[in-house]
Design goal:
Elements lengths: L2 H37 L1 H22 L9 H25 L2 H8 L2 H12 L5 H19 L2 E2 L2 E2 L1 H24 L5 H22 L8 H29 L1 H4 L5 H14 L5 H18 L2
Antiparallel strand pairs: 1-2
Helix pairs in contact: 1-2, 1-3, 1-4, 1-9, 1-11, 2-3, 2-8, 2-9, 3-7, 3-8, 4-7, 4-11, 4-12, 5-6, 5-7, 6-12, 8-9
Amino acid sequence: MNAVPQAVERDWRTPLELTLLGAIWGCSFLFMRVAVPSFGPFALVEVRLVLGALVLLPFLWRARAQFPPRRWLWLAPIGLINSALPFVLFAYAAEQAPAAIGAICNAMTVLFAALIAFLFFGEKIGMRRAGALLVGFAGVVVLATAKVSGLSIGTAVIAGAAASLLYGLGVNLVKRHMTGLPSAAAAAATLSCASLWMLPMAVTHWPQAAIPLKAWGAAIALGLACTGLAFLMFYRLIGRIGPSRASTVTYLIPLFGAAFAWLFLGEAVTVQMLIAGALILGSVAVSQKG
């Protein structure tokens, strides 16, 4: 008797939550762009990791019996690969180029995950995905050769693409070594490990000048909303609609990232950025088809 109302509820709730999550993660590139000039990449990422972990730690405490010491032998390196390093690379990219650049590069995660699964874990890739990879990489080349306000953004694109490559590796490691763990608790564990990895660099690179309130606000929002809250939403979506449908949020992040950067920071969206975004997002769509 209750099946129909529940189905109707899911029908409107899922696209709403996907859109909201895409907007939140799109905001992360805006917040990095605002905060990183004052914090620097290492200090900003440490604040982000600590606040994100704090949001999720209650879930880790509740499931602590499922995290014996041997689990941490994988959780610690996954935290480095899937959070600490890519967060630093995206923060560096935000320091060098408009916020939309990192948001566009982030969409490559899906393609890199497929490529790494093929190269190192024996998964089949197929002709469609292989072609999509080539188109996606062409989009990265277009983006890397673009100029914004007369300045080259190649180093920022390389950093963003490297971050997405690490995300792709992290996805495969999570799939193989964290299956069966409560998702929110596992995220808390990896974020906590990532914050410990980053702590020495954050301490030695902590800014000497006073950090403006605007930068603090952006950093806090980045940690609490774009990391802790966003992870909770994403794992809820995975549990309800599955990882494949939940990953469609990938298509929304560059759109929101570019729109927010244009709206709030006045950053231009160039023709080359649009072409690169279309190539990358189109390749992701083709690789996910079916």
